[in-house]
Each structure stands twice: as C-alpha cells, then as structure tokens.
C-alpha cells in the first residue's frame, strides 16, 4: 500500500494475465496474430514465439530410412549401437569414449587345447539386428527376425535367446523400455512382407508378452452321443492395434511418456500421435519426413532442464520438440540444432535426449536465441483504487526488454468504470536501480 492509501494491483501467473483482452475486446488467444505469447516453463508474458527453421547445410547427412541404426544406453552411460552392416553390435564405453565390438565376441568360445580341434558351432545370433533397448535391471535386448536376444550386462556372456511361437514372431521395428519394468515392442506380422508395424506389445520383466485367451473351437469330427468335443487353439501374444490412431498410419518408432502413454511416430503419412489404452490419442501432422524420435530431458536456453519429445527429420540439422500439456501433445517453438547428426537412432543417456554427432553422442540443447513475432498488444483489466479522485502512481514491470525491443504504455482513468476518459500516452519505462 502506498503512503496515500492506494493499494497495488498485481498480474502474476497465467490466470491473471489471461484476464487481459486483445485490442478487439475479446479474451487473449496466446500466440495468435497480434497477441502476446505465454511461456509456461518460465511463467512469462512474451512476444508470440515462432519456430526458427534452420536452412540445410552442405555437410548435412541426408536422413534416408536405410541409414537408421538402433542405439541404446545402459544405466552407466555405456552406449550400444548396431553397426553399418546391421550384423554386429558395438559399445561405446562411458569411461574413455572408446568404441569396441560387443557382439559377436570370439572370447565367449574357449581356445582349442591342441593344434587341431573340432570347430565350435557359431553362437552368434542371426543377423540383421533391427532394434535395441537397455532395461533398468541390466539387460540389453536386441531383436532379430528369429526373436529376441537378451544380453546380461552384469554377468556378461552370450545372449539368452527368446524365440516366439511358430507363426507368431513379429517383424520388430522398435523397442522401448517401459516405465517401471519390461519393454514395449513395435512390430508387424511376418506376412505380408511389407505389412506396416501396427502391433504394440507389452513385454514384462521376463520379456514375455501377455497372452490372449482364444475361445475353444469345435472339433471337425464329433461323437454321436455325449458332450461335443472342442479344442482350444494355440494362445497368441496379445497386442494393441495402432491402426485406429490415424488413417493409413505407418509407425516407425515409439517412445514411452511419463504419464504411461506411448508416442508413435509415423512416416507417409508424416505425423506423431499418442496412444493410450482405451482412449483416443492426440494426432499432430508433421510438415517434414521424420527419421526418429526420443523422449527425454533437454537443456533449454535459460539453463533449465525440461522433458520433451524430440523428432528428427527433414534435412537432418534440426529436431522438433513437443511437450505434454495435460493429456495432450503440443508442439513447441523451441529450436534444437543437430550438429553433424550421423543418422543413427536418437536415444536417452541417463535420462538426457541425445544424438550421434560425429564420433560422440551429445545432449540436445536449445538454441540460445528465440525468435518472436515483431509486436503484440493487449488491454489490462480495470484497476480500481477504491477511492474517488485517486492519483495514478506507477507501473512496475518485472521483466527483461532485449536490445531492439521497447514497451509502450497508454492509460485512461475515471471515477466511473463505465465512463473512462480518453487514452493518454504514458512516459516510457525506465530501468530500475534494483
């Protein structure tokens, strides 16, 4: 309260600023043409932000689908990835960043005791590898056409082969650690060969899928007397059908979200959407051809960390960001450059969204400068001092006015809210000593 008894009025937070109006007298639609923007992460009113589309560079790698190779990181930050020929696995050590072959590993077979010895059977699983995921309990799971292979990252040794039932093995497109334990598996039926990956399996900690209960079927030959004979068909792994998310959807990657939903990335049509069991999901079209996707923490321009769903594609030098707002997926105008992106699968390293940049994997960081619309205008609500003839005192703005930008203020007043005077231009804001 001032010395003359006037109270201060404060606009703080999205609800308060949301009481402001556009110049047409309608409530503000944040980010619409001519209106300001609201930064949810920093609780700030800004000029409406806009996405900075980075032009392609001569050194950018063209992100062809065949270039993508799955990668995964364990709890210690060691990175495992599929080699260029898709027949070998490599590991990048978190200690010295050295890269070495991981599998096949000839050290798992004992050396022969004599000059001549029987040839040991090759224990390497069939190639090519199609997907990788590292679980929180120390297993690296790799997928091939024959099934899943689980490597014990603590005890070492050859992988444990986990085969699917005859005729039920999916063509695995992507693996994703589930929140808690187990894995999500994105796959397609083995036939036809070009079937889209529309099946989403939930694997438990033992890497087995839930089994669907099939109804018994009557036998072809029945007895003349007595109860009919039935045979229960083989139980098939249960899966969620993703075809209902969008017409013609062609999933290429999945990512687990903190609220239990699964983000699904599609190519041709190009879109990203959310899948929730028993609920309709968000569908966001993309204006570029996507390459891969990852969900994890990124470093924003203010130095703070935030969770984002990141999608790489287009020319390969930029990732688009999305965030969860309630149960909806919303695109953000944040700009995330990808420098020397090699085209492997995006991954999370100790919770940080990362990509391969040359010989190393680096964290995704927002560009320091955000682009904005050139101007915005709004009307505050009426501030009533509660006494007639009050002298308007001061306007204080807690904010930052960057070089090249300015704030102009106009005010009108009166003892009756229904009969306010004309607008009067006010002096420009002065920088406070504090």
Describe the structure in your own words:
By secondary structure, the protein is mostly beta strands. 1% of the residues lie in helices and 32% in strands. It has one helix at 13-17, and strands spanning 37-39, 44-46, 49-50, 71-73, 79-82, 89-92, 99-103, 131-134, 139-144, 147-152, 160-163, 171-177, 183-188, 199-203, 217-218, 230-231, 240-241, 251-256, 262-266, 271-275, 283-285, 290-299, 305-313, 318-325, 328-331, 336-337, 347-349, 352-357, 360-363, 371-372, 410-411, 424-425. The strands form 10 sheets. Strands 22, 23, 24, 25 and 26 form a 5-stranded antiparallel sheet that branches. A 4-stranded antiparallel sheet has the order 4-5-6-7, with no helix packed on it. It has a 4-stranded antiparallel sheet with strand order 8-9-10-11, with no helix packed on it. It is elongated and about 105 Å long.
Task: Describe the secondary structure blueprint for this structure.
Elements: H1 13-17, E1 37-39, E2 44-46, E3 49-50, E4 71-73, E5 79-82, E6 89-92, E7 99-103, E8 131-134, E9 139-144, E10 147-152, E11 160-163, E12 171-177, E13 183-188, E14 199-203, E15 217-218, E16 230-231, E17 240-241, E18 251-256, E19 262-266, E20 271-275, E21 283-285, E22 290-299, E23 305-313, E24 318-325, E25 328-331, E26 336-337, E27 347-349, E28 352-357, E29 360-363, E30 371-372, E31 410-411, E32 424-425
């Amino acid at each position: 309260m001032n010395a003359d008894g006037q109270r201060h009025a404060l606009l703080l937070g999205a609800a308060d600023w949301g009481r402001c109006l556009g110049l047409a007298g309608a409530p503000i639609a944040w980010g619409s043409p001519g209106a300001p923007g609201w930064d949810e992460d920093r609780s700030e009113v800004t000029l409406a932000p806009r996405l900075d589309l980075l032009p392609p560079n001569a050194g950018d790698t063209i992100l062809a689908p065949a270039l993508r190779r799955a990668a995964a990181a364990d709890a210690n930050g060691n990175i495992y990835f599929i080699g260029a020929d898709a027949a070998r696995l490599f590991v990048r050590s978190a200690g010295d960043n050295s890269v070495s072959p991981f599998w096949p590993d000839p050290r798992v077979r004992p050396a022969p005791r004599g000059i001549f010895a029987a040839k040991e059977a090759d224990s390497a699983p069939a190639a090519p590898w199609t997907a990788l995921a590292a679980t929180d309990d120390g297993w690296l799971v790799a997928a091939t056409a024959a099934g899943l292979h689980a490597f014990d990252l603590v005890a070492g040794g050859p992988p444990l082969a986990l085969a699917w039932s005859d005729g039920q093995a999916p063509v695995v497109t992507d693996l994703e650690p589930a929140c808690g334990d187990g894995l999500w598996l994105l796959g397609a039926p083995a036939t036809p060969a070009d079937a889209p990956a529309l099946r989403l399996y939930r694997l438990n900690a033992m890497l087995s899928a839930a089994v669907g209960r099939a109804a018994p079927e009557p036998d072809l030959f029945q007895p003349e007397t007595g109860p009919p004979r039935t045979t229960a068909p083989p139980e098939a792994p249960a899966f969620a059908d993703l075809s209902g998310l969008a017409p013609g959807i062609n999933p290429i990657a999945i990512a687990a979200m903190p609220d239990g939903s699964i983000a699904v990335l599609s190519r041709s049509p190009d879109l990203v959407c959310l899948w929730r069991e028993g609920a309709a999901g968000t569908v966001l079209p993309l204006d570029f051809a996507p390459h891969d996707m990852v969900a994890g923490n990124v470093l924003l321009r203010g130095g703070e960390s935030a969770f984002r769903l990141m999608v790489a594609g287009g020319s390969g030098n930029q990732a688009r960001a999305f965030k969860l707002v309630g149960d909806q997926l919303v695109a953000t105008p944040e700009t995330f450059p990808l420098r020397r992106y090699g085209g492997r699968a995006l991954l999370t390293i100790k919770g940080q969204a990362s990509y391969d940049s040359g010989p190393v994997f680096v964290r995704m960081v927002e560009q320091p400068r955000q682009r904005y619309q050139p101007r915005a205008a709004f009307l505050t609500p009426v501030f009533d001092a509660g006494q007639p003839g009050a002298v308007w005192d001061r306007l204080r703005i807690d904010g930052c006015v960057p070089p090249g930008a300015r704030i102009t203020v106009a005010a009108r007043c009166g003892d009756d809210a229904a009969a306010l005077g004309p607008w009067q231009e006010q002096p420009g804001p002065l920088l406070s000593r504090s």
